[in-house]
Amino acid sequence: MTKVTTNLLYSKDHEWVLQLGGNRVRIGISDYAQNQLGDIVFVENPDSDDEVTANETMGTIESVKTASEIYSPVSGTVVSVNEALGDEPEMINEQPYEAGWLIEVEMSNPEELESLLNDGAYQEFVRKGDV
Amino acid sequence: MVEYNDLIFEISRSGRVGSSLPESDVNKVDLQDKFPKHLIRDIPAELPEVSELQLVRHYTALSNKNHGIDNGFYPLGSCTMKYNPKINEDVARLEGFSRIHPYQPAETAQGALQLLYELQEELAVITGMDAVTLQPSAGAQGEWTGLMMVKAYLKEKGETRTKVLVPDSAHGTNPASATVAGFQTVTIPSNENGLVDVEELKKHVDHDTAALMLTNPNTLGLFEKEIVEIAKVVHEAGGLLYYDGANANAILGKTTPGKMGFDIVHLNLHKTFTTPHGGGGPGAGPVGVKKKLIPYLPVPRIEKDEDKYVIDFNQPLSIGRVKGYYGNFGILVRAYTYIRTMGPEGLRQVSESAVLHANYLRKKLEPYFEAPYSQICKHEFVLSGSKQKKLGVRTLDMAKRLLDFGYHPPTIYFPLNVEECLMIEPTETESKETMDAFADVMIQIAKEVENNPDVVLESPHTTVIGRLDEVQAARQPILRYTKEEAVEIDKEIVKS
Amino acid sequence: MTATYRYLPDTKQDQEEMLAFLDISSVDELFEDIPPEIRLKGELNIPDAIPEPQLMKKMHKLASQNKNANEYPIFLGAGTYDHYIPSVVNHMISRSEFYTAYTPYQPEISQGELQAIFEFQTMVCELTGMDVANSSMYDGFTSLAEAASLAVASTRRSKVLVSKAVHPESRAILNTVAGGPGYTVEEINLAGDCTDLESLQAQIDKDTAAVIVQYPNFFGSIEDLAEIKNIADTTGALFIVSANPLSLAQLQAPGKLGADIVVGDMQPLGIPMSFGGPHCGYFAVTKKFMRKVPGRIVGQTADEQGKRGFVLTLQAREQHIRRDKASSNICSNQALNALASSICMTALGKQGIRDMAQLNIEKADYMAKRLQEKGFVVANEAPFFNEFVVDLPRPVKEVNTKLLEQGIIGGFDLGNDYGFDHQMLIAVTEQRTKEEIDQFINVLEASVNG
Fold first, then answer.
1. pTM of the entire structure?
2. In Å, how far is A120's CA from the nearest CA of chain C?
3. Where are the beta strands (DSSP E) in C116-248?
């Protein structure tokens, strides 16, 4: 059973978004996604101050035998990057919703959140295997 | 026997030497007088210091931890691990080949140029092309060279086409080469018979199609029977056909990419033409083209001017240079020697035996493994470990189990469109007894999966080292030896 | 099937048994899936097979039509050099466990190759002063082009600046490679025998991904890497240095002078000239670019018992995983030549490689000074390693013909690539004796005076 967390929104590319107040959000990948990837060995995040665009590549996650693009669920400016992943990428496997977060973004278009899925809808999306 | 696990740096002792340089017969130079201080090396490079015998023992010990074709069967699909003839090695080491300089005057290198010229001509015959460049150093570089020619050809025609089509079973270098040549890749799904789906192809071929890249026989070891139709579809849309020669070992003297309708071909001399793989290279990936593409071939070209062989740079439409000098000459010498050894009849027999062997082994193994494409194959075939996966044993585990019997495993998990794939290429140089023995072991492993899976899951049991932690290797990479780290590790061992 | 071949083991009986097992009567049935209209009718139109003894004779004859460096003292360099290769190198790389193996995909039975590459990577890091080196590239020239592509990809800028004092073949290949993704290659002019720093300063801008120089440069001169690094830093361009690894035994490591990427060819260390290939490119970077490096990389790890072992690692960079998202399509390396080079570096050792580099410096210095004493002009203003340029009163081509008549292979004619057809680039390695150098100078004197 894939874990989801109720206070988050999800994209169909398996990223989650946590609203931190104002236009600031935190972004990570879902438990389902980390499970599919297997042991994560490296994350390439954008840098602080980089612009990200909804549904476009913002970085890459590597496991031993795969490299997957991370698609940003929202548009905006990167305001914080989880530097701890540099030494401990396995945090994404171990705590995808907590210590394994990727970046924080100041959104330029908060309406984009409306197109994301809530936990129930994401759960359903994953269950259907429509991925 | 005592295990030897040292790095060359760990057996180094200050003051030992393993070579003998002459004394200087000219005046000494003080570096401080000649070079600015900041450009003089301050800390010497920490190269090892060992005697010649220590060096020999070290590398001999390493070689003993390595499996080559000479050690045993190596049915690595798509890699054509056939016997590497010894005469080829002797010839490449003749001083007239190994100690000549690429820039010495052409008139002092006529033997080398003649060899290159004749090899170009013969590879053109073998592939059914009109001209060949020997410059590319490997298959991947050949692919990129070919695609750059496609680009130049289209440009000259005033066209900009952006798409290169590859089947879903293609090797990773095909799409990667398309990208580095500046094209976008479109993946064409295979049909249920493992072949290019012509109807699906038609949907993707249009005025933006620059080329279709194909191996034939394809990566599943199956001949693309509809190749003539495929070529027609691509050509009618104004695109070109690129032949990836990875599987050319199946067709020597039987057909040619030229006859199939291809415009560009690369060959892997380290596969089909017996030059050694060397543990990963050097190889050679000559590229042949049809007449309309000759002007775009890389410079320089080796040509014959009456009875002289010349190096020609005057090719205004050429894509330019792709590799230093004239390609991997030493490898080309080996391939030339091989072609001379075999002749036309011999090369045809190579493919006939390669295909016979693959079919023989296929039929022996099919009752024990899932065979997604059970039909006549060419020089290789694929099986799936899906049956075994249901029992909790993956193809990787079976591959590791093979190591216990002294075999190099087949290619695994490639092509990507076959679940738990095992891709097996016995080659023509293996004897029937070897294939029979290998088949017996494969069958034994299939039975072990049913009756005693742990022996497979825990394998290999007989190798110098067990399965290695690849996750750790990629998370915290240690990519070089340092004294400090070695000391740290020693401390940890003492502690534990 | 009729004639027998020593590489094909099937007996008539083997064939019959296999055909019977397949329930067919002839091998031809296995080729029926090839449409008849594209089958070859007769045999391939290539020369007939030759038995081994005759073939060996034929190949000896072909080889003897080339003048080789053992018989003709050679003063050609320009990227490929006639150096001492300890006998032990050829013996060790001739162990077929090494040369008949494929890329080490199965680490349990490839520890020898993997460890050898790990040691090679270490030696390259030591010489270049860099953090990370890969398992090798096709050659130094293509390695340089890959470095430029890496710089363009990682800086997301679209222009590279390359000095005209970089090997002409490097620049030619760089231009071909750049044509793929479509980035711009601009050349930096020369100021005498070195890169013109004023031009560099004028050309460098915010869109410059990298500045590329050679060390020693094509004319043998030692560029001041520290100054070039300062200029590269003004706009955040990466600094790429192509270096002769032998020279690094005595010259300051580029890594210590600020290089981001160091490339070059290991040919001077243990690899025969072989008419230009196969040689062995190397590729080294600072830690920052570790996961952007093209090609295979070997890393150290451990098995379940904690025993040290080696594997191919950081594979998620590579074409077999990234496919069309990969930044390089390279799939092989020059493993056997990297091995040759490691063995040569091991044989030479920490002091030996310095001695060898020093011999090169001294022989070249001797020859240049002798030429100057005889009234020739040495064009290098900067200090040089084992190569330098001499001005000749006659076209180089003519002089080289005279030298050849006297059994000497002369230097490189700068006419073709630079238009300086009266300038000869001369390489003097440790292989050249004082006697050979003196003889060269005698012939040179006679030929320009006569």
1. 0.96
2. 33
3. 132-133, 159-163, 184-188, 190-191, 194-195, 208-215, 238-243
